[in-house]
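#struct-help
A.M.: can someone run this one for me? Single chain, 134 residues.
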Amino acid sequence: MEINNQQIMKKLFFIFILMGLLSCNEYIDKPKNLIDKTKMSEVIADLAINDQVIYLYPGSNLESGTRFILKKHQVKNEDFIASYRYYIIKQKMKGIVEDAQKIIIEKDPKSEKKIKGDIKVDNLELPKAKLERQ
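D.P.: on it. Structure tokens below:
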């Protein structure tokens, strides 16, 4: 009787393991309004350029620039976030980012050295703030 119970338990254990492996097929469902890879690359390229505006104009509003870019590409914020998560989890973001880098280089050929990492930055120290008490 014990041998029969052990065999049944082994079979049940095997069935549960098999069910667990088969059910873990997808980590994330494909978003309803998934942004295609080409458009995603264009949006990311524009967002990267917008991000650099902060360095040129420190008082500028990054959020309004982001909204403008999404509106320009006719993409909703929720769709962009869902598509971004999907591509990250599916490990397809590297190709999208590489395409975005190519788009940036087409728009500004001088940026190629910076993107490829050929530019050496001499001064890596942050400027020291003057701490004066009045």
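A.M.: thanks! The radius of gyration is 25 Å.
D.P.: also worth noting: Residues 2-23 form the longest helix (22 residues).
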